[in-house]
Design a protein that fits this description.
The chain is an alpha/beta fold. It is built from six helices and ten strands; from the N terminus they run E-H-E-H-E-H-E-E-H-E-E-E-H-E-H-E. Helix content is 23%, strand content 32%. Bound molecules: S-adenosylmethionine.
Length: 243
């Protein structure tokens, strides 16, 4: 299957297909974490957790409220958390598309709340917000992120996020059948302005404590001399609330 981007629109609402083609990922195997097999993103999460519990003397014993956007059916991050801090986990909020949430086999666990929109989460505060390769697929990313900011998480992890240094735009991401070239799926996807995204957090009393810009990827069918590619980076961000 081939994925590529077609066209450029200024607003995801103009993508006629956005409502019919979501990026869906089931990945229903939560039990594939061992300490030696942690992904880069899990290692980053591990360091925030360590800081959360160890560096701060009033932390041990504090129970964690964790919110993951784009958790997939398997909620892999939940099993990661239960492995490392099971007795300190207060609640795991997982958000994904309705069809994905329905498939999840952890949905009835005691300290789990799964839902299809962040707006169903009514906590005054949460401790860690985690979104890995998700923000770009939201119809209104800044609206969702503002709701998250209202819950004042201490750490915000936003990984694998496609950004531009130029004007924000959305494209249609097509998945084609390799042989017939028939379009199998199409999804609206944002390229967010990196400064605007970082400013959103910095203006809300967060500091950027980790930034990794990945520039050495091929952007599906976009040629490397294309103006979009020159402005492009895929980013891993960690923000920490300033006390
Ligand atoms: C590229 S996958 C990343 C999955 C997982 N976070 C990971 O790191 O492997 C994107 C995820 O976002 C979910 N997603 C797409 N649109 C969404 C939306 N509007 N609200 C919540 N989740 C969404 C997809 O179903 C999928 O689980």
């Amino acid at each position: 299957m081939t994925k590529y981007y077609k066209g450029r629109v200024d607003c995801i609402d103009k993508l006629k297909t956005h409502d019919t083609g979501y990026y869906e990922s089931h990945n229903n195997d939560p039990d594939n974490n061992t300490v030696t097999e942690l992904s880069k993103y899990e290692k980053l999460l591990h360091s925030s957790l360590k800081e959360f519990y160890i560096k701060n003397p009033d932390r041990p014993g504090k129970k964690l409220k964790f919110l993951e956007l784009g958790c997939e059916a398997g909620c892999k991050t939940y099993s990661f958390l239960t492995k490392f801090i099971h007795k300190y986990l207060d609640v795991y909020y997982g958000v994904d598309l309705p069809g994905i949430i329905k498939l999840s086999h952890i949905k009835n666990n005691k300290n789990v709340f799964l839902t299809d929109t962040v707006f169903n989460i009514k906590e005054k505060t949460i401790d860690i917000f985690y979104a890995n390769a998700v923000i770009n697929y939201l119809k209104n990313p800044y609206t969702d992120l503002t709701h998250i900011l209202n819950m004042s998480p201490e750490y915000i992890h936003i990984h694998r996020t496609h950004c531009t240094t130029g004007d924000e735009f959305a494209t249609l991401q097509l998945t084609l059948n390799d042989t017939t070239e028939e379009v199998i799926n199409q999804v609206g996807m944002w390229f967010l302005n990196i400064k605007k995204l970082v400013d959103l957090f910095e203006l809300n009393n967060y500091e950027l404590v980790y930034l990794e810009k990945e520039r050495d990827r091929t952007l599906w069918d976009i040629p490397k001399n294309n103006e979009y590619w020159k402005q492009y980076s895929r980013n891993n961000f960690i923000f920490r609330k300033i006390k």
